[in-house]
Amino acid sequence: MTGTTLKEISKALGLSISTVSRALKNHPDISEKTKQKVAELAHTLDYEPNANAISLRTRNNRLFGVIVPSISNFFYDSFISAVEEDSRLHNYNIMILQSGENPLIEEENLKLCRQNRVSGVFACITSQTKDITPFVKLKEQKVPLIFFDKVPPFEGYNKVCIADAESATLATNALIQSGRKSIIALFGNENLSITNKRVNAFKEAIQNVERRINYQVVFCNTTSDAYTLTTDLLNNLPKADGIFCMSDEILCGAMKAVQQKNKSIPKDIAVIALSNGFFPGLYFPEITYVETSGYKLGKAAFARMLECLEDNFETKELTINTTLVKGQSV
């Protein structure tokens, strides 16, 4: 069953199609009486504009593409929630695409964005993305592009990130101030700039302390990796009394290992994480964490997108400040 057309409305009211079209667009040349008649009939007949036709005519279908590694990740779920919320307020829709940490799928997702003539793209790159040529095509077509969270190490692009170094420093200092002497530090994929920033900040905070603190830095790609590595380290480092977790996924793996070892928190071992805030509250005692909010990141990214849509082609790198949220694990 096809929907009501402009032609059907014009025939019913004895008006031209162009008059009906302009009335629906609230054109000043059309009288208020005619606008009201057209609007009432359009509502009665449940008329909806042809989105595809509008897109072809205006080259803007009021649709944003959002590319994330996985929507099952609570951080990205929060980011998407914020973008969707603000998109709706500004009469935009969003198309959510997962890369599955696969650069080839990421490239196909970008192709879908171009084919759907999106108004802009929010993208968190995969941990394996080395070549950003597919993203360059968007820039060449003047489609606004906002990289967020995991971003490429190249200048000349809009980026919105958590204050990575600051968050790692806050978490490390909390462990140091609690008197910990032997720290296990679990970080994500070592190929990513976000990981490198956090690792460097962690090491710098340790080196700035006058007393000697032993530490072991390891890299985990998954929750399973974090569990296995934490288990091994707790076996090999019996005096370890602190654990730093770079993300919620790593926290979940580390906590499984700690609980299996029957370690008392924080008496035997302190635990701190960089977190979106949901998972730390699931444990007892609650985990102390440095807030890395996907929701706040989404709000900032959307605001930057609106600036780009206003023909602001200057590129910016924005950071979202972090705060320490105290639990009872440190």
Which properties best describe this structure?
12 helices; 44% helix; six-stranded parallel β-sheet; Rossmann fold; single chain; six-stranded mixed β-sheet; alpha/beta; elongated; 330 residues; 12 strands; 3 domains
How does the SSE layout of this entry go?
Layout: H1 6-13, H2 17-24, H3 32-44, H4 51-58, E1 63-68, H5 74-89, E2 93-98, H6 103-115, E3 120-123, H7 133-140, E4 145-148, E5 158-162, H8 164-177, E6 182-187, H9 193-207, E7 214-219, H10 223-236, E8 242-245, H11 248-260, E9 270-275, E10 288-291, H12 294-309, E11 317-320, E12 324-325
Parallel strand pairs: 1-2, 1-3, 3-4, 4-5, 5-11, 6-7, 6-8, 8-9, 9-10
Antiparallel strand pairs: 10-12
How would you portray this structure in words?
With 330 residues, this protein is an alpha/beta fold. The chain has three domains: 6-49, no CATH class; 59-162 and 295-322, Rossmann fold; 164-292, 3-Layer(aba) Sandwich (Rossmann fold). Helices cover 44% and strands 17% of the residues. The chain contains twelve helices and twelve strands. Helix 10 crosses helix 11 (248-260). The longest helix has 16 residues, at 74-89.
